[in-house]
Design brief:
4 strands, four-stranded mixed beta sheet, ArsC family transcriptional regulator, Glutaredoxin, 115 residues, 50% helix, alpha+beta, Tscrpt_reg_Spx/MgsR
Length: 115
Amino acid sequence: MKVTMYGIPNCDTIKKAKKWLTEHNVEFDFHDYRKQGIDAEMMTQFCQALGWENVVNKRGTTFRQLSQEQKEGLNEQSAMTLLVEQPAMIKRPILFVDGQYHLGFKADQYAAVFA
């Protein structure tokens, strides 16, 4: 089973998800958006699998700092461009397990994925 977690290491939700995976002996690779980057192709895969509206973290400071114009004019194309430019705006974590993407972290969600 190949597992990859995408995110930024100092995020609290990422820390909880990593802890859960480690405690349940799930080996995983971690893709750090800040160090390893993200490109349009990867963002397209995330958005096709999860829906672009779900991938945008509207509760984070990066999103809140956008202009009112940017927020109101948000569509799939503009969102994907912004997400590549500002990966901190991507909802975290995105987990890729055996060809399937999963978004966010809840212990019961992970328990179901790795059952």
